[in-house]
Amino acid sequence: AALPGSAHPGRPLVVDLCCGCGALGLAVARRAAVDLHAADADPVATVCAAENLAGGGTVHTGDLFAALPTGLRGRVDVLVANTPYVPSGAIGSMPPEARDHEPRTALDGGRDGLDPARRVAAGAGEWLSCWTMGLNQSTHGTWNTNAICNLHLATGAICRPGSGPMSLTGQPNA
User: Fold this and answer.
1) Nearest to residue 166, comparing CAs of 156, 174, 158?
2) pLDDT band for position 148 (50/70/90)?
3) What is the 3-state secondary structure (H, E, C) of 47-70?
4) Cβ atoms within 10 Å of 144's Cβ, excluding its own
5) Burial of 33 (0-12, 13-18, 19+ CB in 10 A)
6) What's the pLDDT score for residue 128?
């Protein structure tokens, strides 16, 4: 399925930041023919992502956009990012299955849980071919959806909060 208005009508360019094991990018790549690039700062995560995305995407190790090839700048059609979103002070009160088994870097979103999201919002405009943003509330929850949307609006994005996943055609998934 082609993304309406894509700079790459046949194969949209998709970037998955903070990819972890590559699950979000893999889900996109299984639903549509895309050129996928995934990045994470954790080299253990990128080894796992490379195994999961073998033949379906390119994985880069590094900090957010700095990990990506510069040739992608201004060409990205879809940007997904599951940034760390737990406030630093709340990590200790998380359930042990998350707190004790996830790398802290995958959880720690800074003082208010939004530091990594702020960095993505600040950099996304120069990487995206079109600065429209859809926001899925399921990961971040409604407690900070407005804050995240406001971060992107402040950088000039058109923000469309939603209550569920959207397809690459912009239509709600069933």
Assistant:
1) 174
2) low
3) HHHHHHCCCCCEEEECCHHHHCCH
4) 19
5) exposed
6) 87
